[in-house]
Amino acid sequence: MDLVDFRLRFNLHSLPKAHHFPSTLSFEVKQPLRKAAVLVALSSYNDQLELILTRRPSHLRQHPGQISFPGGKVEKFDLSFEDTALREAQEEIGLPNKHVEVIGMLHDHKTFTGFDITPVVSIISKPFTPVIDPGEVDELFTIPLSFLLNSNNRHIQYFSRGGIEYPVHFIPYGRYFIWGATAAMIDQLCRLLSQDEPLC
């Protein structure tokens, strides 16, 4: 899938830009969820779209060592979820806002760890040199969108919690193991883009 095809498919099926939608995962919430936003950023390399991901340091209290998108909690001074995602991406990996074209949002994703995450989908319009904040990111890497679009590479398993079964998404890729909210958001994007899979 090239950039033109990606834009066409995403625009045909995506949510309106900068709109806040309820989560696709529903479970009983006992305390208010903390709002967060992540940048689902795609870059084009040799006419191949690649998704940018990071690995979190092991010393972090929240999700240590896990694979994630650049992003974080919404601050009071952020004007929108888009602002949060762009600010966090600049802080974590040195991605300049002027090099990012936001094209829309995915459905929010609620987590058991108390976050309500808004995925902000974007295209990196210009090459940039990553500047990693070691306090937030251990490693930055990319995965070809073509690999992720292959449904055989995306998996789901159900786990019981409090007598209720919940889906957990996971995607093995080389030495990386993507799971949880990040894998679920990738799966949502891929289903939206794929013509042979139902949209959700």
UniProtKB/TrEMBL annotation:
<dbReference type="InterPro" id="IPR000086">
    <property type="entry name" value="NUDIX_hydrolase_dom"/>
</dbReference>
<keyword id="KW-0460">Magnesium</keyword>
<feature type="domain" description="Nudix hydrolase">
    <location>
        <begin position="33"/>
        <end position="165"/>
    </location>
</feature>
<dbReference type="InterPro" id="IPR045121">
    <property type="entry name" value="CoAse"/>
</dbReference>
<dbReference type="Pfam" id="PF00293">
    <property type="entry name" value="NUDIX"/>
</dbReference>
<dbReference type="GO" id="GO:0010945">
    <property type="term" value="F:coenzyme A diphosphatase activity"/>
</dbReference>
<keyword id="KW-0464">Manganese</keyword>
<keyword id="KW-0378">Hydrolase</keyword>
<dbReference type="InterPro" id="IPR015797">
    <property type="entry name" value="NUDIX_hydrolase-like_dom_sf"/>
</dbReference>
<protein>
    <submittedName>
        <fullName>NUDIX hydrolase</fullName>
    </submittedName>
</protein>
<dbReference type="GO" id="GO:0046872">
    <property type="term" value="F:metal ion binding"/>
</dbReference>
<keyword id="KW-0479">Metal-binding</keyword>
